[in-house]
């Protein structure tokens, strides 16, 4: 019997140099249980604006890379900031490039909210978008890891026993959902 091992592609919805969302995903990489390999996607800023004409003609290399990474993943873990009560345009652009892909439908997706301010509009919108895209949203493996705000680092997240416990709980729930 082979050991349980699942590849989880981590997608941050932020382009900030010191992003709380990216820091939360980096900390999750360090805390992941043995059965989960967390891989951070870092091509968000390389994606061109979504254009159906371009998609129909020939996919740009950054889009091909994104779709390849999604295809190789057993699940996705998303951390998305909230801007103006919604999903940031750059992250929605990433999702738009996946709408027409064969790699995305049915993909298990969990999300984490790194906002310590109780923001929930982006997560609500994100879940709606993901369901429309035929993702298998893992609500039980999703939740809030309340970071102090923008500018958090991986080290600061890992220095907090409470944040580590929250991340471990989400990752354990993700592992259980993927085993089911």
TrEMBL record:
Keywords: Flavoprotein, FMN. The keyword Flavoprotein applies. It comes from the Bacteria. The keyword tRNA-binding does not apply. Its cofactor is FMN. Residues 7-141 form the NADPH-dependent FMN reductase-like domain. GO terms for cellular component: cytosol. This is NAD(P)H-dependent FMN reductase. GO terms for molecular function: FMN binding; oxidoreductase activity. Gene3D superfamilies: 3.40.50.360.
């Amino acid at each position: 019997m082979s050991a349980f091992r699942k590849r989880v592609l981590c997608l941050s919805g932020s382009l900030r140099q010191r992003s709380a969302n990216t820091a939360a995903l980096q900390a999750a990489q360090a805390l992941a249980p043995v059965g989960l390999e967390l891989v951070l996607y870092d091509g968000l800023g390389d994606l061109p604006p979504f254009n159906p004409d371009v998609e129909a003609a020939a996919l740009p290399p950054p889009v091909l890379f994104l779709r390849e990474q999604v295809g190789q993943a057993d699940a996705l873990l998303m951390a998305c900031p909230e801007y103006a009560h919604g999903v940031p345009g750059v992250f929605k652009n990433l999702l738009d490039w996946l709408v027409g892909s064969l790699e995305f439908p049915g993909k298990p997706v969990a999300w984490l909210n790194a906002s310590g301010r109780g923001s929930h509009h982006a997560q609500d919108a994100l879940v709606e978008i993901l369901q429309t895209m035929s993702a298998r949203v893992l609500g039980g493996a999703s939740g809030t890891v309340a970071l102090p705000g923008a500018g958090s680092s991986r080290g600061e997240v890992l220095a907090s026993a409470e944040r580590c416990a929250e991340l471990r709980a989400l990752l354990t729930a993700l592992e259980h959902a993927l085993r089911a």
